[in-house]
Here is the input.
Amino acid sequence: MQEPTQLPKTYLTFPPPYQRVPRARRLVHTLAGLLLFPVYWLLAFATSAPGLVLRLRFARKGFVLLTKRDYVRAYGLLVAPLDSFRYFEFDFMWHAVKHLRPSAYLDVSSPRMLPLLIVDRNKTLVADLINPDKSDLPETRSLAKTLKLSSRCRFHDSLIGDAPLKPESFDLITSMSVIEHIQDDAGAIRKMWDLLRPGGVLLLSVPCAARASEEHINLNDYGLMGADDQGFVFWQRYYDDSLLQQRIFSITGQPRRSRIYAENKAGNYSRNVEQKRANPYYPYWREPFMIGQEYAFQQRLCDLPGMAVIAMEFVKPE
Here is the structure.
């Protein structure tokens, strides 16, 4: 077996999660979001930001949750259902599955609304959802129950390599910005490819850059890996052309279709992440407009000024 490439490492230090904010300021922040989210959503159309029409589906689900008095999650789906690159990733994957009629579907730890929307759209579909984050999986179960989708979802609190699933069981597999967080990423791709039936579709997205690298952070967000001697935990890797070939395409072959969405100035994404981690009053409702202003589609990884996300569609040969 080929030894994994040793990548340049960056060590990031983030503040601990902020504590509860004062009730009055939280109320003002909430009301501001309700008033301003449609303004920024409409402004985003002028910037040609992706995912804006899909956002209406999130809003409809938000209104459903309002009728069930699930106010916190309703607010999230109405005001801030997506952030940064998620607008692009959801848009790519949603359009890829739009005309598919899968009979067996697997999602590997994507943001929960992706598999739930896919299940909701395909009324006879039963899905398997893998999520090893034992603190996050109950939230997905709860939301599926509220949306009356839990009877068509099977939940697995395991890593993809440990999931009790049979080879060639699925004709659709999705995994949105996940494998970059898995140390044995090639093993995860190989497992997904084995689980896919001939003729089946695999949809992946990963962060990328002109040159591959790794990030390690001082917070253990998922609790799935141990820290090094300095207290840093592996967080994610950025793929370049060579690493995509080595870790993914050597298993799947070349994608049938792919798109790259990138920051138009190096540092935009890092600054945005730091603001979200440090500011409890971050205006998430501005995200679609911000994305359209500071990000754009690109043609080649080698030309990227900073970081990006590449979304890919693979079809397993019959």
Residues 210 and 302 are 4 Å apart (CA to CA). The chain has a mean pLDDT of 92. Residues 23-45 form the longest helix (23 residues). Residues 9-315 form a domain with the Rossmann fold fold (CATH 3.40.50.150).
